[in-house]
Amino acid sequence: MEVVELDYDNLITRLLGVGMAGGRLTKKVSELELIKLCAKAKSVFVSQSSLIELHPPLIVCGDIHGQYSDLLRIFDKNGFPPDTNYLFLGDYVDRGIQNIETISLLLAYKVQFPENFFLLRGNHETSSINRVYGFYDEVNRRYKSPRLWNVYQVVFNWMPLSAIISGRILCMHGGLSPLLNDIEQLRRIGRPIDPPSPSLELDLLWSDPDQWTTGWQPSNRGVSCVFGQDIVVHMCEKLQIDLIARAHQVVQDGYEFFANRRLVTIFSAPHYCGQFDNAAASMSVSEDLSCAFKVYRPASKAVRLAAKQAEESERIRVERKSQDEGSDGEENRKEEEKEKSNEGNNNFKDGEENGEEKDSD
């Protein structure tokens, strides 16, 4: 029996359509299609190195965490692939309400434009983390398929852990490692991998800079380590690089420098978890390696409050409707209404953009 190849252009169009009010993922994209997407994405990751070597111009983005409308906002303001080249630094799932849409669109772009679109692995692209912080529950609730969740984990285990831009800007999700001695180590990282502790691979996903630290110290996260400004300066000289670009931490303005501008943290999920008033940012790297930042301000508190109240009202309405209709077919109807509520709350509107560009120099 002939296996029918997915039309990835069509899949991308449908995934983008889900971002509009009233779109429903499970009605537009089947579980089988997502499984095929993951299989193809895995083959693309297998064909590329653990250290991705890139050349500008390109846009570098940090954590997304299932905030699908904010991902679309980034594409809208910077250009959709393949017109613009992208590098994402990990943490695509967990916390947010549209994790499946987020990771699936990113994987579809990776498959369709493998030499223009790049995805690094974050610490939330590990089974022990996304089993607990939202992704597993969302896949189970919407597709009722632990199998599908496992298929995504296979893809995650093949994702690259680092990238280097023109040999001068080193990128990863977390940070540096005391086990990192040279760039060649990053190329030699074997995959698939579930990073053990302690390890270079774990540090690339988990470590953090810390302004109060000198040298290397254990992390308060209980995983990996933190490192001081002295380590950043030393490692930049040792690895012959100019800048370290990483994500992994919420920063108020969307980006934040450390160690006299030798390291920058980029976070691309505004109003993170609905609890922080942080802005988001993306970093544009030009051909001469100069960097500029586009900042995405969160929606006003009044807008967020209204959206939250609307979501709560919809939730109550759905629960009452389900109770009135009885148990026959109740779960399917609740699922459809839940998705409609979640996906209808996207705030993908030009009027909400309050971006600004700032030169890093």
TrEMBL record:
Cellular component aspect of the GO annotation: chromatin; pseudopodium
What GO biological process terms are annotated to this protein in UniProt?
Answer: amoeboid sperm motility; egg-laying behavior; male meiosis chromosome segregation; regulation of pseudopodium assembly
Residue span, Serine/threonine specific protein phosphatases domain? 120-125
Q: Which stretches of sequence are listed as region Disordered? A: 308-361
InterPro entries documented for this protein: Calcineurin-like_PHP, Metallo-depent_PP-like, PP1_catalytic_subunit, Ser/Thr-sp_prot-phosphatase, STPPase_N
Give compartment(s).
Cell projection, Pseudopodium
Annotated catalysed reactions: O-phospho-L-threonyl-[protein] + H2O = L-threonyl-[protein] + phosphate; O-phospho-L-seryl-[protein] + H2O = L-seryl-[protein] + phosphate
Q: What is its EC number?
A: 3.1.3.16
Task: Show the GO MF annotations.
Answer: metal ion binding; protein serine/threonine phosphatase activity
Q: What class of enzyme is it?
A: hydrolase
Skewed-composition ranges (Basic and acidic residues): 309-342
Alphabetic keyword roster: Hydrolase, Manganese, Metal-binding, Protein phosphatase
Highest taxon listed in the record's lineage? Eukaryota
Q: Which family does it belong to?
A: Belongs to the PPP phosphatase family.
Role noted for this protein: Probable phosphatase which plays a redundant role with gsp-4 in spermatogenesis by regulating sister chromatid segregation during meiosis. In addition, involved in sperm motility by controlling the dynamic disassembly of major sperm proteins (MSP) in the spermatozoan pseudopodium.
**PANTHER family xrefs:** SERINE/THREONINE PROTEIN PHOSPHATASE, SERINE_THREONINE-PROTEIN PHOSPHATASE PP1-DELTA-RELATED
Tell me what this protein is called.
Answer: Serine/threonine-protein phosphatase
Record organism: Gnathostoma spinigerum
